[in-house]
Write a structure and sequence with these properties.
Blueprint: H1 4-7, E1 11-12, E2 15-16, H2 19-22, E3 28-29, E4 40-44, E5 50-53, E6 60-64, H3 74-78, H4 82-85, H5 88-102, E7 107-109, H6 120-136, E8 139-143, H7 153-156, H8 166-174, E9 178-181, E10 187-190, H9 195-202, H10 206-209, H11 220-227, H12 235-240, E11 251-252
Amino acid sequence: MCTGAALGHGHVGSAIFPPDLICLLPSLSPPSATQPQAIMRLINTRTLKLEEFFDNIPHYAILSHTWGDEEVTFQNMCSLNPMVKAGLGYEKITKTCQLALNRNIRYAWIDTCCIDKTSSAELTESINSMYEFYTLARVCFVHLADLPAQIQFDDGIGKCRWITRGWTLQEMIASANVEFYDNQWKFRGTKVDFRFQLSECTGVPKSVLNKTSPVASYSVAQRMSWASRRKTTRVEDMAYCLFGIFQVNMCVKTRNALSAG
């Protein structure tokens, strides 16, 4: 349940939430003063092993994608077996790490396996830090699993699931250096290359995509309009995925968040 102090007047942190969005926050409460320090768990792109960092975070690449079948969880990564390695989810990990290695980036972050979602504390920290994770990444690789190699980007991007999902909105905005890959992991171009097409498809101004205008310079109504085109599997996820865009930091009382991409 939301507390009256946090949500009763539509104020959360430094943002002012419209009533419609407040209704999407049934499972939030203010952050605890004793909340543990955030862990950032990264994949070593050479060994494909997970490593943990509390500070002095190394340079890393990050993946933006939509979840599908056979995604690899944190628990899977801790005890890899041949069945997991043969799945499409593990291919995302190896492809992301290879792309990072090609740029001499030793680490990568992927939401499916770098968060222990059985830990409520870690899940809360990760969701609150998600926007920052993407902002600080050296490069963000976008994998468009439903963009066939033979289809032009201009013709296919509007039909891609990635362009409609709630979580990928902040990933697209937060990341400065974004590269797009199709379902065969063929490079298609960058966010700068496709800024006109992306702005038309998403409603997000080109100045936001180019990082020439800060997100906070746009009104709540304008930012809400960007989210109005997006969908999430769970109602509460629609609120969680907007934390960074609205500069909100709150506790998440669910272990199912982030499970739908």
